[in-house]
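Run folding on both entries below.
>entry_1
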Amino acid sequence: MKSPGRTMRKPRERRMLLRSRVALSTALVVAAAIAGISILSWVVTQHNLRAQLDESLTRGGVRLVGAIRHELGQAQLPPPPPMPDPSLLCRVDNANEPLQRFVEGIQLLRNDGSVCAPTGVDEVVTTAQDRRVTTPTLRDGETRSGAQVRVLLRPLEDGGVLVTSRSLATINNTLAGLRTTLIGVSVLGVAVAAASGLLLTRNALAPMERLTRTAEHIARTEDLATPVDVSGRDEVGRLGRAFTAMTAALAVSRQRQRELVTDAAHELRTPLTSLRTNVDLLVRSERTGRPLRPDQRARILSSLQSQTGEFSDLITELVQLARDERELARTEVPMADVIAKAVRRASSRAREHRFAVDAVPWCTIGDASALERSLLNLLDNAVKFSPSTSLVSVSSRPGWIIVADQGPGVPREQQAHAFDRFWRAPEARSLPGSGLGLAIVATTTAAHGGQVRFLDPPKGRGACVRVDLPVTPLCPSEPHAGPE
């Protein structure tokens, strides 16, 4: 458990810009690559140079001793054996100048423990293990003066060991120069990579920068009409188009909200004025002590009851109309049951009307209560504009529902506006209602992936509305063509 006195620390926000992070990441990757290549190059070069030196030491031993025999005047003797007598080394001195290039770095370890080397040779520091070698052996070592050398130990037949060495100074100097060069090239490469990455990233993220400034401007001003200047087919272009579509959808949603609020305020003004007038009459009667006549009081109370009912219906319809599509349920809905419930509710409200239902079982995916409310609005609308004792028919087959009445119908020129919010036909404006019934039908149907439209009435009179909805494959039924 977290102690009461401690508070959770917020994660530190990244202050480095994206282009700087990309440039830094690029520089680090390039630095790692260059470092790897440089180290590999240095190791391979060191291996090759030392291999060449080892080969030179291995092959040069016999030639060196043979050269010593030649310089000592024994060239007329028969060809030397594979390993000439190493004791010749002890007969070489500084006076023999031509031999200096051969005798440098060579000495003899006798089997009696003594060391023999030409005069002036910087002897290699040997160990007890060097005298016990049985095969030609290479190792690193140093001379008595401290110079680093590569040493070849060759065992002799008489128990001695011939020691040949070559200085590592040339190799070390070469490797040191190569190391300096590689470090310089690596630093330069990393700098160039970082600068190039920063430049390329800045150019590549320029559209993102513009998009960011536009988003910040929209967040600051709430101006959803601000154009987004981003193009291209890459990820940034896709993001720009998605952002444009999002702001356009938000602008449309905001406009619809404003229209809904404006229309609702306009529609509420008249019944609210009438309701307030009736309430004022009752209050004035009580305050002045002059009671209203019984019939007048009954008429006012009846009007208040009717107006509050209209308010309740209007609020219910506004809530239904304002529901977000994402709030609707997504379940398998048997439409025959929905139709039966809606007809039962409509018939209980309008007992003077007759209802005929012709429906087969089929299903869709959606919200059962919203679909029932939508169909009930169609039935209430049919009842309201149909004469008493008239017939309201409901027919349904997989994918469609048709509600037809025997009222005056909707003229063709007005059918396009019949599904608008708060729209009412001129001849129906004196009748009770909010003008939201068909708007709810259109909104609910569209949220379920369908559409609603007027059809020509079968007998030339009345209104005929068709609702098309998708059929779910989870509820199999044979397709049936409905009237067009």
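>entry_2
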Amino acid sequence: MDPRSALLDHVALTPASDIPAEAWAAARVFILDTVGVGLAGSTAAGADELVASAQSWGEGAIPILGRAGTYPQSTAGLLNGFFIHNLEWDAVHEPAVVHAMSVITAACLSEAAKSPAIRGQDFAAAIILGVDIASGLGVAADSGLRFFRPANAGTIGAALAVARLRGLPRAHFDDVLGLAYSQVSGTMQAHVEGSITLPLQVAIGSRSAITAVDMAEAGLSGPHDVLDGPFGYFKIVEDGGSAAAVAERLGSQWAVTQLSHKPYPSGRASPATLEYVLRQSREHDLRLEDVAKIDGAVTPLIHRLVARPYKPGMTPAYARLCLPYLCALALRDGVISPDAPSDENLSDPMLADFAGRVDIKVNTITDPNAMVPQACAITLKNGEVLQGDMPHIYGAPDFPMREAAYLEKFRFAASFSHRNLSAETIGTLETALLDIDTQDSAATIFTVLGA
């Protein structure tokens, strides 16, 4: 069997009974996490403007995370995707450098809302298999990021996951893949500039996944050799890699078990340093005024993503990925909150001054996709230096958030929902999500939310 067919068979034909227990367990936890950060993102910067824009795109019956109102399915997928990624709090597959749950869960939520007969087990299975594809595309890549990989790999994984949920015949999956690939978009330029377009690229990916399935179901065809072809994914979007490298993982490595939580709404590149700073702050009772400077040594990828300097007038999206600013917040507040990049904080001269005393340099690692190891040195004003190495990032499988921590994150995130949720509703939703694969309908998520 050719590798492309192996990918498509994996999503279209794998029985739920072939998915191992550890993958089901991880899926429950990360579906919970993704819905939680999506609820928080429903009230983040840019959400009001995008919802206002979406209201001019037609009427529909599909509810969305965290807000009142219903929309056409593709629009609902777009809004869910934006909410899930706009706080940079969503789960990531580190070796792939792909936010593997984001586009896929956003699209599958809209499909489940459209078809309440979709069982929770089918919903979770589609996400598990879609995550295998999105993560596999990232792991197979031989180069660093040029295009925004989470959106592009996510679009392909999401389209195949939605096709499975919709019950499309296997013969249609070749066209779903081609139609999804033909809509991938988004580069790293938005990341460099800290533009609100970054989460919009995830949102657009979710919408594109849904429309690819719609078009294939209606009988439209797409190109087929879109992974290894002369103008395929591994020639244009990625500078190297192969479908064979994706296929060889399928069925033996379940990517959902390899995902990492983001403990803070600040991207995946910052938590190693932030966790070290917060831990030292707690252990030594440090305050912002006690610290003279912070020096970090990070991989080229981490440096590229979050070593950006503090600058006056920076946007919330830029600030969430500005490690010097985040270090200042961590020392001042002892936490990184979803509303940390407020106008008041962004203009705080004390935070600006300290951010100028955080120096992040590149270490000796040459792998363009490596996130670790990292190191940090905190110099106190009394001359003492607190120094540590970070071989793992907090929230990763080898340094995981324990159950109490990820449940606390979910409850905290859900409390920021634009549509106010009571503690009782959040608790009911938590229970439903942790039992998602036993639910008669995946749409129970929206029933609990009162959507």
